[in-house]
Amino acid sequence: MARRILVIEDDRDIAQLIELHLKDAGHDVRVAYEGDAGLKLALAKQFDLIILDLLLPGVDGIEICRQVRAASTYTSILMLTSRSSELDRVLGLEMGADDYLTKPFSIPELLARVKALFRREEALRSQAASGQKVVAAGGLVMDTEKRTVLLNEQPVLLTAKEFDLLLQMAKRPGRVYTRMELLNQVWGYGYEGYEHTVNSHINRLRAKIEENPAQPRYILSVRGVGYKFAEPDAPDNG
User: Fold this and answer.
1) Is the peptide bond before 104 cis (omega within 30 degrees of 0)?
2) How do residues 95-129 score in pLDDT, each as one tens digit?
3) Looking at the chain, which terminus has fewer C-beta neighbours within 10 angstroms, N or C?
4) Which CATH superfamily is domain 4-126 in?
């Protein structure tokens, strides 16, 4: 299935290489080489995916990500960065990027991430079609259409992946997930060595939704296995 993809990357060699391989995969691709033009395209036209460099002339990738997320329609964002620090990656994810790749990266890895994002999008559409529009547990309420979370009637700001991870567990309370299962179902890939990604997202989720992250009420650890969302009226045993 052909998808509309916008590539915003100031390195022309990288941008054209990405464009070539995405077109070979059957996608409709537009390219912008600087931030202002990329932002204008991103807000003016509907794309299925934006591949976005973090460092750009003019408007940078973080600001583009922020403005795209403020728009009424949801567009997947894969962020590219030449920086390797955890802080930069987390910043991109906090601003709403769905995934990231650190340069240098391989084309097969890029294509795998793109496919994973599209599978995730299809899964979200399927969930919406199933009619499960609200998931509630105690004081936690998730709206799957608006992709919003309320905790005791107060909004909680989650990144795209944090929302997907929480929803994956919350819609099946008591079901125990291994880290590899969560990687496959939320990120769409299960490469060994990425389990720490699940751990870091769980920690950030707990910091946002748990009154005491050290003694969680909602997201519980299952020793030696993984994680689960607490069953109704279950005792806290995180």
Assistant:
1) yes
2) 778 888 888 899 999 999 999 888 877 766 666 56
3) N
4) Response regulator (3.40.50.2300)
